[in-house]
């Protein structure tokens, strides 16, 4: 390096965004051209993590480096320093913001933009950057097949179906057999676009918004696309539309795969169609490859949980129900994790020889949930919770990830909520959620990862609140509401219905009336669950009387406030002691009612 170049290197390493920027802007174009490549090579070889700031400053100079050389520098960093580059940051700069700045549209060459520069730019840019690329392509520039598909994927990520379709139509203009309309890459991106599809009413009846446009472009749907069409049809809430799509698939001899059956099982369970689920299970039993699919296995376990475990027949022994769930689990998954949780009875013997694959989180959760549907004794709940908690804190590779959501914790709480002896453990569970370390390292030999431990959300607090109300512990319930306020938990419809249910059971008419008033003021409505709670009232007429009294007091307060604003001060009137005492009594009574309303409002 020349002496002046060495001076520039020193500035880059010490104050790139300050002194180097000033010195660089003061150089002539010939000097910049002579120095840039030497500085870039020196930094890549000896100080690669100083390279991003160097590129950031020089790319914004009045004389910019060649776009291809900038891209080469980025690719060198990504290849040789992948982790350091992805997580690089300095002040407000990140690796993504540096790429966006250096490869911004104003820096693109007029004649031809390198294809890899588009790929880098689109991977890091925001929605407006994607729109710039689309506009550039609409002006007649060639983006290339892979980059067009990357652009489509970017718009899908931002939920913009219209622009995704607009970009996708340029695929048809390419004279490249790799991007024929029936090629795997093109069809895969059609599937991505279809994830945004929905049904709309038109002059010719109901129809999909996106599918007809893809068909007009010459796309012929394969099974993967039809699976998404089937999924979108069931998502409309109109089962007949889904069945029509299913008939179409059967008439056109589409082979059903695991994803098809997962969609069908999900819909049948959601609609509570037990007969349909039984039919699908019989079909799947004759398809061993599909039955061994982890997604289908989870759907089968969920169907069993929804129809059998949650709605147990009183004539069936609970242990038989749990053993049947274990049999479903063992067909595919290793039972060792459940034994570590102390969940498998010593007398249980699997009826089938399974594949011993690593269990999914959904499978583990469903077995745990089923166990507590069948076994609700406090001693068992406490023993298994303490074991679960210990495994989570140890970073167990199967159970620590369950602590990333509140579902498993809520199962323990739900099991205990109608047991008066379980209230202390309920409080401990919520405290454990609050006091857990923010992140837990998972001990997994295959990969190093951490999970963010969940904090109790509205549903968890609602279960705890409902437990105290059910067990007639109103003071504890009030403490729970104070904790909810402390942790900024917003009331939703379920929380309000739980509060109202508790007051109705306790025949606490004033608090019940104020809860209903406050709920309505916050935009929620009295629904069927609210009305169901009001049936517990011994004297429902008194509730409406109290609400009318609250309305009258508030109305009087508003009117008096208006009068005080409009009326001039009244002259002092001399009253007898009896009149003065009566007036003070009325004022004290009215102030007491106002304070009562304000106090009850403050609870929420």
Automatic annotation (TrEMBL):
Gene3D superfamilies, sorted: Tetratricopeptide repeat domain (1.25.40.10)
Protein name as catalogued: Pentatricopeptide repeat protein
Annotated family: Belongs to the PPR family. P subfamily.
Start-end of each PPR repeat: 492-526
Signal peptide location: none
Ranges for region Disordered: 557-586
Highest taxon of source: Eukaryota
InterPro entries for the chain: PPR_P_subfamily (IPR050872), PPR_rpt (IPR002885), TPR-like_helical_dom_sf (IPR011990)
